[in-house]
Amino acid sequence: MDVDIEDILAELDRDTTAVNRSDPRSDAATDAGTVVNSSFPQEQALKGRGSGAVATASSQEDYGRLVAHWRNERCAPELLQYPHALMGRTLARIQAQMEHLEMLSMDFMEGNGSEQSGGNGSSGSRPVNNNRMLPLLCMEAELERIKFVVRSYVRCRLAKIDRYSLYLRQVGEQVDDDGFSPLDAQLSRDELVYFRRHAEITLKLFNDTILKHLPPDLQAINDTEGAFNMVDEPDWAKFVFVKVTGPPDGRLDADHQLTRGQDGEYFYQTTIHELDEDIDLSIGSIYVLRYNVIKELLADGKVVLV
Amino acid sequence: MAYFDLDDVLCDGSEVPCRFLHTVPGLGFLDGRPGGTVTAGTTLRLPLWLAQILAVVVAGGEGEEGEGEGEEGEDNTPFVEMQVPGALGPKVLAAVRADPVALDVHAVQPHFYALALRWCALYADQDLARQVAGLLLQRAQEINGFAVAGGAQGGNTDSSNGASITASSPFLATLDEWEKGVYRDAQRARRDASRWGR
Amino acid sequence: MSLPSHLQETFSPEEVQFVVENQKIKIFPRITTNRRRNGRTGDASGDDSNQWKMLTVDGSVLDNMVAMRSTEVALWLALLLKQQSKCNIIIPGWLTVKSLDAMLQFEKRNKDRFGTLPWDWQVLSEILFKQAADDFSDPIHELRNRIQDLKEIRQMKVLQGLKFMNESHLQLDNLGLMEINEMRPFIVDIMDKLREFHAAVNVQSAVDDDAGDEDMSMGTGIYSDRDISASSRTH
């Protein structure tokens, strides 16, 4: 992924101020929450997600959050919010690590050269040499893994942007007083650029090949009046698999949305509006539900998509 | 239903019988008689996309879009009255009740479920919805069974090779277009998991 | 397309494996990286090419390994070290003949629910069989047989449970991630269609809405003409 270091640094600068106020654009701010040992990896990531400043943005936790975002994004029918701060930090770390590894491997090549000619005797024997390569090997493997997640995540989002481009245009038209539209929070800057260009090119194609040959009142590509809605919206009621993890900080008593049952177990009460049906979601259980039923719980980190 | 969904568009082309409630000149071409008049009471088979509009738009100038002419003093009824297409008719439904799995849905209507869905939406036909949903669920079990078997063998169902679906079993040849999609999805998931495990 | 359509709402098995590989597992290192133990405290502090500067895992754990003292690292890392002959993997307790037999007993006795295997049981067992075969104390073929049996018996339960798909919801506690992923496209396709039929006729609450087993039941859609008895729960 082509990343301009200036952009990343600029993003980072913006992030440090974002940490101190509840900026809707910064990704899930976290408590210094307790990390309860839980089975699903993203539970660890989303624990500690509440209101407040990012207390610990350790690279491990960030990776956990990144994987959680990736999994949620794949499974969700709509385009989720872009985690600006998280991605900024992650991309910066990746860049830094790439440079570090390059440096290391150059050292190795030079080091090997001098040893073979009987140079430094401090690490003469071969097994130690092998050991010296080991961290490098691991770091490279790890780098590939994190790059995979980032790429896959971006691909997933781009696919959704392509699919729902007309709908996003509609959303983007709701500009508030400061000139910001919801899209600014939902998409990254690069994604916005991609989205606009893609939409423009596609629209031009439609126009030139078909639309301009149609009668004037049939030329719209986003006609929402009439029998059919031309704009494809995400299917909010699509079924998704969710696992109920409970409040990210693990404090069951403090969570007002939780109800306690007769057997002492905790559950969330939800309603399927289309069916006028109430469902209790117990902690630790796996359900197949409509996305709109759990959308808010998902945003709060109380359930995860699996 | 997505605007650009191909199956939906194809389904729109299926024909339903329509009884004309008015006499309309100039529509003879629908019946193969260009320039002729269609008299009230005639039943013609019209494609769903057309029938739908004509069944809703009221003839007689009540300030509607005035797309056609009705005779003066005509009561406010639509141009046509749609009748239940054969695919959703009593014979088919009886077969559905008798043996859902044996029914050759594809032969009845390649876009059976899409058509049924449209019809239910138009007429809020609960009974039909109930029956078709039941049909769907029972056939789903069979489809999954085949998908599991097909996937475990590492069968190939790339969409470029759609013909292989029908070749392998008589049941699979009876699937309507939507069911085929379900089979493909299930089989692919099974096949990928099976390949991974090796 | 940026992402192939069949991957747009589910994962490939390889991706499921990737997720599982992020989990931690216990190992016995065969090398010592802890400098004090190594007697290398006198080393020039400038030589940090040996330092494990990691992004996704805790580098200090790796920097402090002592041979044959157990420690915990991410699975992918453990596999890498194993491949380089730098560690032995400690097989988790549930992956023994005894434990799997107990689990099989449970599965057989309880037809309407799934046993509490770890969510990554299928992936983990397969990976360890292939890459850490020598770390098992029980014979691998015995373990494989039991894993296969577990897979089959649970699959049967899933098949039974499919009869209860509806337009409302399903509850599938204790299903493993690979199992979920395999069933996902099919289940979502069918339930989405049922939902569409329900929405098309737009009924608010059905005449014969039998609440049955309250909260945990499998949804009481008007299309479920089965008796919602206890056996319908795959709990």
TrEMBL record, chain A:
Location, primary (coarse class): nucleus
Positions of region (Disordered): 109-128
Domain DNA replication complex GINS protein SLD5 C-terminal: 234-306
One cellular component (GO) term of this entry: GINS complex
Biological process terms in GO annotation: DNA-templated DNA replication; double-strand break repair via break-induced replication
Keyword Signal carried by entry: no
Pfam families documented for this protein: Sld5, SLD5_C
Domain GINS subunit as annotated: residue spans: 130-208
Keyword Secreted on entry: no
Compartments where found: Nucleus
Keywords per UniProt: DNA replication, Nucleus
Family: Belongs to the GINS4/SLD5 family.
Function: The GINS complex plays an essential role in the initiation of DNA replication.
Name of the protein described by the UniProt record: DNA replication complex GINS protein SLD5
Source organism per UniProt: Maudiozyma humilis (Sour dough yeast)
Lineage of source species: Eukaryota, Fungi, Dikarya, Ascomycota, Saccharomycotina
UniProtKB/TrEMBL annotation, chain B:
One cellular component (GO) term of this entry: GINS complex
Location, primary (coarse class): nucleus
Residue span(s) of domain DNA replication complex GINS protein PSF3 N-terminal: 4-56
Domain of life where this protein originates: Eukaryota
SUPFAM superfamilies with a match to the protein in the record: GINS helical bundle-like, PriA/YqbF domain
Keywords: DNA replication, Nucleus
CDD domains according to UniProt: GINS_A_psf3 (cd11713), GINS_B_Psf3 (cd21693)
Ranges for domain GINS subunit: 89-196
Family assignment from sequence similarity: Belongs to the GINS3/PSF3 family.
The name this protein goes by in its record: DNA replication complex GINS protein PSF3
Automatic annotation (TrEMBL), chain C:
Keywords recorded for this protein, A-Z: DNA replication, Nucleus
Main localisation: nucleus
Span of domain DNA replication complex GINS protein PSF2 N-terminal: 64-90
Annotated GO CC locations: GINS complex
Location within or outside the cell: Nucleus
Keyword flag Nucleus: yes
InterPro entries, sorted: GINS_A (IPR021151), GINS_bundle-like_dom_sf (IPR036224), GINS_Psf2 (IPR007257), PSF2_N (IPR056784)
Domain GINS subunit positions: 94-196
Pfam families per UniProt: PSF2_N, Sld5
Statement: the UniProt record of this protein carries the keyword Transport: no
Top-level taxonomic group: Eukaryota
Region annotation Disordered: where it falls in the sequence: 209-235
Gene3D superfamilies: 1.20.58.1020, 3.40.5.50
PANTHER family associated with the record: DNA REPLICATION COMPLEX GINS PROTEIN PSF2
Protein name, as recorded: DNA replication complex GINS protein PSF2
Organism: Maudiozyma humilis (Sour dough yeast)
Lineage: Eukaryota, Fungi, Dikarya, Ascomycota, Saccharomycotina
